[in-house]
TrEMBL record:
<keyword id="KW-1133">Transmembrane helix</keyword>
<keyword id="KW-0472">Membrane</keyword>
<dbReference type="Pfam" id="PF14159">
    <property type="entry name" value="CAAD"/>
</dbReference>
<dbReference type="InterPro" id="IPR025564">
    <property type="entry name" value="CAAD_dom"/>
</dbReference>
<keyword id="KW-0812">Transmembrane</keyword>
<dbReference type="GO" id="GO:0009535">
    <property type="term" value="C:chloroplast thylakoid membrane"/>
</dbReference>
<protein>
    <recommendedName>
        <fullName>Cyanobacterial aminoacyl-tRNA synthetase CAAD domain-containing protein</fullName>
    </recommendedName>
</protein>
<dbReference type="InterPro" id="IPR033344">
    <property type="entry name" value="CURT1"/>
</dbReference>
<feature type="domain" description="Cyanobacterial aminoacyl-tRNA synthetase CAAD">
    <location>
        <begin position="71"/>
        <end position="154"/>
    </location>
</feature>
<feature type="transmembrane region" description="Helical">
    <location>
        <begin position="115"/>
        <end position="133"/>
    </location>
</feature>
<feature type="transmembrane region" description="Helical">
    <location>
        <begin position="85"/>
        <end position="109"/>
    </location>
</feature>
Length: 156
């Protein structure tokens, strides 16, 4: 019986130390925060570690929230079609939510995200070749962007 026990123990004892061939990565030991000790630190270093100074100044370069709110209120009162602005804002929020749902649905299909990635890479390559590679096509792109800006601003 003793021979059987020793052979079964020999089957389960590792040949190499467990620290060298562990499946889990090495993690440093955890220290509880209540038992932290400063024995090795000098008194001056200990006091400099624990020193905290809070200051406030009235002339800080931060943003004045009252001024910001007053400015936004003034701009909102200047808007004539408030319902149109709210409708466009709500439509933008719904469009972002809907596009998030569509992207999530596409990502759930196993092969489709890789196909879409290839389509995106192909389009990016075509765009670089068509508009960015040569000087003449860069000028063409710049004029197209300027004309689009003018159409959006309503100056054209």
């Amino acid at each position: 019986m003793a021979v059987a026990a020793s052979t079964s123990m020999a089957l389960f004892t590792p040949r190499f130390p467990a620290t060298h061939f562990s499946v889990f990565p090495y993690l440093p030991p955890r220290f509880p925060t209540t038992s932290l000790s400063f024995k090795g630190l000098s008194e001056s270093r200990r006091s400099s570690l624990l020193l905290v100074k809070a200051t406030s100044s009235e002339d800080s370069s931060g943003v004045d929230t009252n001024e910001l709110i007053a400015d936004l209120k003034e701009k909102w009162d200047a808007v004539e079609n408030k319902s149109t602005v709210l409708l466009y804002g709500g439509g933008a929020i719904v469009a972002v939510w809907l596009s998030s749902v569509v992207v999530g649905a596409i990502n759930s299909v196993p092969v489709l995200p890789k196909v879409m990635e290839l389509v995106g890479l192909g389009y990016t390559g075509w765009f670089v070749y068509r508009y960015l590679l040569f000087k003449q096509s860069r000028k063409e792109l710049a004029t197209d962007i300027e004309s689009l800006k003018k159409k959006i601003a309503g100056t054209e």
